[in-house]
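Why does residue order matter? Because the sequence determines the fold. Keep that principle in mind as you read this record.
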Amino acid sequence: MKTQTLLQSALATAIALGAGFGSIAHAADAPAEKCYGVVKAGKNDCQTNTHACAGQAKADSQGDSWVYLPKGACEKITGGSLTKKA
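Structure:
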């Protein structure tokens, strides 16, 4: 009985993980663009003129810090820009 429950749990987990990976792969294939000015402090995706690594934005909405968003989403966000802000 315990073996059957263990196997059912393992199968359910494998199915759930498989479904999750499929949506991640699909999201990675979708076109994306850099969106400037909408990043929370410490949540930027990559380097800027003031720092060399992801996660180093010092302030919220820092104009030169960016995050990848699905194409078309940036311009729908207040403060979002496809170009760096001074």
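The beta strands are 32-36, 66-70.
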